[in-house]
Every structure is written in C-alpha cells, then in structure tokens.
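Please fill in the sequence for the structure shown.

STRUCTURE ENCODING:
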C-alpha cells in the first residue's frame, strides 16, 4: 500500500500591516462566516436545527396536554425562518388538527413545540378567526397536512444534490459558486414571499431551491479554503467559517419572531423572506468586491502574504489550471483515510442532530421545563458548540506551528476527545432524572462543547486528504450526512412513543454508541496528510517551478522553485520565491 505524502513544512505567517484587518486570509474566513450566518436566514442544515414556540387557542392548548397529543404537537422543521414563518403563513385553524402536526413530524424536518406560550407572536392575532383578513396583514394559507409535509421534505431533496455540486466546486470558480448559492437562495425566498398565496407548489419549489443552495455552499467553501489557506491554517479557517451557522442560529430566532408578529412591513410573514433576500443581495455585492477564488486573483493582497500562501501550497496541485485530471473516484472510494473521515463526520452529525432537534422535547418530557425556560436552555448548547468550535480550531493551528506533533496526530487527538466527550456526556445525562435537571443541562452543554472538536478533527481531515478534490470529497460526505438527517427523526420518533424517561434514554444510548465509533475507525485508518493519488505524477520529480500571476501593479509574477529529493522518505522540501516586476 502506497504511503501518504508528508505535507510541506511551513514557516510562520508574515507580519502584515493592513488598515482594517490582520490579513486577507482572515478577511476571507470572516466573509465566509457571514455567508453561513446569512444563509441561516434561508435554511438551517442538519448540523444546526432550531425550534420555535407559539401560542394557540385554548382548545388547541387543551388538546396538547395529553401525552399522545404532545407527540403529535411536535413538528420538525429544517429552517429557522421557515419554522417561524410557517406559523404565520398558515391559518390558526390548521394547527387544531393533530394529523397535520403528526405528518410533518414524520417528514423529518425540525422541532416546533406547539404546547407552550411565548410572546413572539401576538396572541390575539393568532386566535382571531379572521386572522387572515386582519387589516394590513398578509394572507394566510389553508395548506393541508400533506402540503405542509411536502414543503419541508423539498429541502431535503435539494440537499441531496450535494453529491453533484461537490464536483463543480473543484472545477469552477468557488467564488462564483458561493455567489450563485446566495443568489439562488435569495430568489427562492422572493418566490416564497410573492407566490405562496397563488399556489403551494411555488413554496415547495422555493424550498427545493433553498436545499440546492445549501448543497452548493459547503463544497465551495471547502474548496476555497484549500486555495486560500496553508495546511496549518485550514482547521481554524474551517471553524471560523462554519461557526457562522451557530452564530446565525442564535441571532435569527428572535428576529424572525419579531417580524412575524408585526404587520407594518409587508403585512407580517413576507417580511421574513424579503429581509432574507435583501441581506443576501447585499452580501453578494460585498463579496463580489472583496472576495476572490484564490490569492493570485486578489489585487489588493500584499506580496508577502501571497508568497507565503503560494509557497505553503506548492505541492498540493490546487487550482483548475494546474489540475487537468479527472476526479480519481476509484482511488477515493478505495481510500481507507477517506472513508474513515466520512464515517467520523456521519457519526458526529447523527447524535448532534438528535441533540439539537429533539432537545426541547427531551427537556420538557424528562425534566419538565416550561416553554420559556426551554427556549433559553435550548440555546445554551448551541452557544457552547460555537465557542468550542472556534477555540479548538485555533488550538489545532497553534499545535501544528508550535509543536512537533504531526497534523494527523493532532486531528486524531482532537477528534478522539470530541467523540469520547460527546458520547460519554450524553450517556451520563441518562442517569439523571427531573430532580437533577440543571446538572443534566450542564452535561448536555458539555457534550455539545466536545462536539465542536470534530471541526479541527475529522472535518479538517476532509480538506487535507486531497486538497485538489476537496469539493468532491465534501459532496460525497455530506450526501451521506443529509441522508442521515432524513433517517434520524424517523428512528427517534419510532423509539419515543410516549415520551418517557426510558424511551429518551434509549435514544441517547443509540447516540452514544454512534458517537464512539470514530474513536476506533478514525484512530486506526484516519489521516490528515495529502494522499499519493491526490497528486499528479510530476509532483514526484526532483523539482518543479510554479508561476503565480497577480494583477498587483507592483509585482507581476511570483516564481517559486520547489525542490525535494523524495516525498516517500518524508524529505523536507526547499522553496525559493522571486518577484518579477
């Protein structure tokens, strides 16, 4: 079996003096973070789900007090703005039918607790028989249970296209892919706002397009990170960028509730989608001006930073002009490191889905928290996940630069801590009943904090194994993750029939076992080194010269000579760069 190629040893990044930001790399990661945060206005993928609560009329509240009705009043939704908007879009009478709620629960979407009270939506308006005809209020729809189910299922179908969009991310300009993703989502939200009253099929089409936009985004971001960041910094860039999902979750829920409860702007619920589209268009304008597919296309980047990135990524064959090969699917599908990373990501996401999707139901059923308390406590694990992801991703970069530990060892250590912590803290929470509710919440927050270590672990491995094909590998991975997102709620609902402590314990036991699998698989077969099949044959020669062209008026070309005796013997390469004016 051929050995993997040892990565290029990097120097510390140069000290730069930009006026508003420390480096263009940091600015790029920040823009990607804002992209993920803003995309949460459109969707919330299987990694980050949320729930909303709202008031119902007295009859509905009474119907939800029984144990059977409570399970029927739990609705899974996959999108934070859609989760709140659907409450405003449908006439209150539609919520009186437990069949509707039960159907949507069956349709694997997120958690909308229908049994509580929260002042996000005006009670009088929601309980009014003429709510759909309120002066200045937008029209509300009489969607059936099946139609509501199709709306949320459409997102999952769009998300499954990631298997194909991953290939596009490696072949085409990742900047334009990201812009295209935002524009598609913006158009989808405008379509929902304008045409939902005409036909439910427009809403279904809009939701499908939102799923497609998400499928375009993640592979494109991973592909762009491999081009913009040296290997030692990719973990931190990935954590900062994808942390936008958690940040968006914490900010969007109250904003959607406020927009939903007013009628001054576009009559209420349409304002959620108009705001989403407006922010998306604003982001496109900013990113078009500041973003770039790779450093050599950024006209404002300093020569020191450009040379640092170029020299660090020389032996990875990144960039569509250098890569004239097809995706080596046979080698990818036969690669043990690839499959160990794929399995690790799936095993990380599966219990994470259970935690975030069903946490409100668990806290209510087992620990008897009120709806107001539930809403606050359910946000704490998401905040812990965000903080942990940022800090642990930086720790990965710090350890690579300041210690002699290899990149693979660092990823395995962090991923092992994440998997063990996630699994064991979930298991420990099953030992506590309602008399120890605060301690149970602390354990759940600790499990989410440990889950953040998977970003510099198995997810960092995805962009390290084959940087030139990171989009394809990301698409393959998250195709299975999306499939798991469809299966997870079905299994959980099959287990949790009455909401007893024993039933929830069974769900957490399953999540614990799944979370612990990567402790074995990733530690045995995992890797964060560039694989031999991810390189062209010319990379094994004794030397090569790469010319990186920039449009900077000061330097036209940066030429770097890359010399190494033998990659297989882990020889350190020497890199010399010169400027040609």
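FILLED IN BY: designer on duty
SEQUENCE:
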């Amino acid at each position: 079996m051929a050995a993997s190629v040892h990565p290029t040893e990097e120097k510390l990044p140069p000290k730069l003096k930009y006026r508003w930001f420390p480096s263009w790399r940091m600015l790029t990661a920040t823009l990607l973070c804002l992209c993920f945060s803003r995309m949460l206005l459109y969707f919330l993928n299987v990694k980050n789900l949320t729930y909303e609560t709202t008031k119902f009329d007295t009859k509905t509240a009474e119907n939800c007090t029984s144990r059977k009705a409570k399970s029927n009043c739990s609705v899974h939704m996959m999108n934070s703005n859609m989760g709140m908007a659907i409450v405003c879009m449908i006439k209150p009478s539609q919520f009186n039918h437990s069949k509707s709620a039960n159907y949507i629960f069956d349709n694997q979407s997120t958690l909308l607790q229908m049994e509580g009270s929260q002042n996000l939506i005006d009670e009088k308006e929601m309980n009014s028989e003429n709510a759909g005809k309120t002066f200045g209020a937008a029209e509300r729809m009489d969607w059936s249970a099946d139609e509501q189910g199709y709306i949320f299922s459409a997102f999952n179908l769009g998300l499954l296209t990631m298997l194909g969009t991953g290939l596009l991310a490696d072949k085409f300009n990742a900047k334009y892919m990201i812009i295209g993703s935002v524009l598609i989502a913006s158009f989808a939200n405008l379509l929902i706002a304008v045409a939902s009253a005409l036909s439910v099929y427009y809403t279904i089409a809009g939701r499908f397009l939102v799923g497609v936009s998400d499928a375009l985004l993640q592979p494109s971001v991973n592909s762009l990170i491999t081009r913009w960041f040296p290997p030692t910094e990719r973990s931190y860039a990935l954590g900062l960028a994808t942390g936008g999902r958690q940040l968006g979750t914490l900010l969007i829920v109250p904003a959607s509730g406020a927009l939903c409860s007013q009628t001054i702007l576009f009559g209420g619920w349409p304002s959620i989608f108009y705001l989403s589209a407006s922010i998306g268009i604003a982001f496109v304008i900013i990113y078009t001006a500041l973003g770039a597919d790779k450093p050599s296309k950024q006209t404002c980047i300093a020569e020191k930073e450009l040379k640092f990135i170029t020299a660090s990524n020389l032996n990875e064959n990144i960039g569509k002009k250098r890569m004239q090969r097809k995706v080596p699917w046979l080698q990818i599908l036969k690669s043990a490191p690839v499959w160990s990373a794929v399995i690790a990501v799936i095993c990380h996401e599966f219990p994470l889905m259970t935690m975030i999707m069903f946490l409100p139901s668990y806290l209510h059923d087992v620990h008897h928290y009120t709806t107001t308390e539930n809403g606050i406590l359910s946000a704490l694990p998401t905040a812990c996940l965000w903080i942990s992801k940022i800090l642990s991703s930086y720790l990965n970069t710090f350890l690579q630069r300041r210690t002699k530990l290899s990149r693979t060892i660092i990823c395995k250590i962090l991923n092992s801590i994440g998997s063990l912590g996630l699994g064991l803290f979930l298991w420990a929470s099953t030992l506590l009943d309602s008399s120890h509710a605060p301690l149970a919440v602390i354990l759940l927050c600790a499990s989410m904090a440990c889950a953040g270590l998977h970003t510099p672990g198995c997810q960092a491995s995805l962009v390290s194994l084959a940087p030139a094909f990171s989009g394809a590998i990301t698409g393959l991975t998250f195709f299975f993750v999306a499939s798991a997102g469809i299966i997870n709620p079905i299994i959980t609902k099959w287990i949790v029939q009455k909401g007893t402590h024993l039933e929830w314990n069974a769900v957490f036991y399953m999540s614990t076992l799944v979370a612990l699998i990567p402790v074995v698989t990733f530690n045995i077969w995992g890797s964060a080194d560039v694989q031999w099949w991810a390189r062209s044959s010319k990379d094994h020669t004794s030397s090569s010269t790469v010319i990186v062209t920039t449009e900077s008026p000061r330097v036209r070309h940066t030429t770097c000579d890359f010399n190494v005796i033998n990659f297989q013997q882990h020889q350190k390469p020497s890199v010399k760069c010169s400027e040609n004016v």
